[in-house]
Every structure is written in C-alpha cells, then in structure tokens.
Amino acid sequence: MSVLDGILHSGTMDLGQLILLIIAIALVSVIFYISGAIVSGDWVVQAPYVLRIVIVSIFAVVAIPVFRNAMGEFDLGDLGLLFAFVLLILAVRFILVIELTVSDEWLASIVISLIGVVLIYIVDEVAMHLADIQMLSLF
C-alpha cells in the first residue's frame, strides 16, 4: 500500500498518512538535492533552490502517481510510467535546473531525473523490506 492509495480511495487522510506523506516529501527532497549536487558539482544551496527542490518533491510524490494511475485506468500499462518520467523531467527542467550551473540544461534534467528515480526506487525497496510500506509510489 502506498502513501497515496489510502487518500485516493477513501477520500480522507488520517494523521499516520499525513506523517508518511511528509516523510516521503522530505526523503524525495534529499534525493533531488543529492541528484542536483552530483550533476552540477555544487553542494552549497541557497533558500530559493531549497524551495524549488521542495516544489519538485511535492510534484513527484503527489502529482506523478496520480497521472500514472490515471494512465493505468485507460489500460495503457507501462506507458503511464513513461509519461510520469517525462513529467518529472519537465518539472526538473523548468523548476530545478534553472538554479544550477550546467552547460546543457536538458541533459542535466534527464540525468537528475534518472538519478532521482533510481534513488527513489532504492529507498522504496528498502522501506518495503524493512517496514512493509511502499513509501514512495513514484515508480
């Protein structure tokens, strides 16, 4: 069961789901900070960049699973995952990469998204094996 499954199916959110959602956003924020720092080589952050990371993290944790599940409702299978990844690349490009010093912004967006998705998948698998919770239902 993912963080958003209970919210999407029951329509309400209890305190445990809210805490899990906040933890998921915080973890994804750290993941995107690490991804951006690896790509740009700059490990120093200013307040506007932190806000951009949080916005992309909220988008990744909340909006992308909704789009992915909507594509699944049309029986499009793995196309939903591809569409969610393209949405993530666009969000990273137009929200996050603007603050980074990189030579090719589109390439940086793709690499940040790919590193982010791999790290999100690793965190999700560790959470699934340790606590039997699918925290990050991104991919």
Order of helices and strands: HHHHH
Helix/strand-derived category reads mainly alpha
How would a crystallographer describe the biggest sheet?
Answer: none
Poorly predicted parts: none
Counted beta strands: 0
Overall average residue pLDDT:
83
How would you describe the shape?
Answer: globular
Number of domains: 1
**In what range is the share of β-strand residues?**
under 5%
Through-space gap between termini: 13 Å
* Helix proportion range: over 70%
Gyration radius (Cα, Å) is: 15 Å
Q: Count helical runs.
A: 5
Give me the oligomer status. Answer: single chain
Structure report:
There is one protein chain. The chain is mainly alpha-helical. It has one domain (3-131). Helices cover 76% and strands 0% of the residues. The protein is built from 5 helices and no strands. The chain has helices at 3-10, 15-40, 47-73, 79-96, 105-131. Helix 1 packs across helix 2 (15-40), helix 2 (15-40) packs across helix 5 and helix 4 packs across helix 5. The two termini are 13 Å apart. 27% of the residues are buried. The model has no long low-confidence stretch (mean pLDDT 83).
